[in-house]
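To: structure desk
From: M.T.
Subject: fold request, one chain
Message: Could you run this one when you get a chance? Sequence is below, nothing fancy, just the single chain.
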Amino acid sequence: MVELAEVLRDLADESEELDLRVDRLAPDAWDRPTPAPGWTIGHQIAHLAWTDHASLLAVTDPDAFSTLLADALAEPESYVDRGAQEWLAEPDALLSRWRDGRQALADALTKVPAGGRILWYGTAMSASSMATARIMETWAHGQDVADALGQRRAPTARLRHVAYLGYRTIGHSFATRGMDGPTAPVALLLTAPDGSQWTYGDPSAENRVTGPALDLCLLVTQRRHRDDLALEATGPVADAWLNIAQAFAGPPGPGREPGGAR
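Reply: Done. Structure tokens follow.
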């Protein structure tokens, strides 16, 4: 089990990497479109700031978060886009809001009692799991920003959080589409950025996914189409999952078309 303090350090580092990527952008660059249809670089950062705020409410004011949750359930297909749009601002103000919000969330997570559960969209989670989810989102939206800027990111060991979340949400990927859950366990045997192997699940399982950890993370965050990734599925359940993998909460994501940037 990964300690909360370690996850929060990795979240801070992941956020700082993205912060450095956008900190010195020219004002007009914030309007540059990203691979997410209709979203600019500004939308990507606004979404992170908005989600940090929602997360903070979930930790510190469950009643206020329940109101947000009701709004999301009323309009599940549009609430994420609305949140990003509502939080857009001039770059300096947006960066300040994002920086202050992510620090406030990190501070709040350290105060969650051991064993405490935090209400979230469609689930409840521990403080460590919420911090892991924030790493996943920050990394995924950072990928969109890097793609928009024509930049390549060096993969880091922080990908293990995203890969783990992808593994833990295999059943969710089926459920969110109204499909029957997996009929057999799926194992992930992934090549880490340093060449070592990350294994999730029983490596002898009949259903397995093998390939680079980076590619698995791009898939479960729906930043690349399966056809553009070096992932190999063994077994029908693993093969079906690669078509619908989704590590984030909410309704099924549209994914990306084949031929995306690498």
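Reply (cont.): The longest strand covers residues 186-191. Let me know if you need anything else for the meeting.
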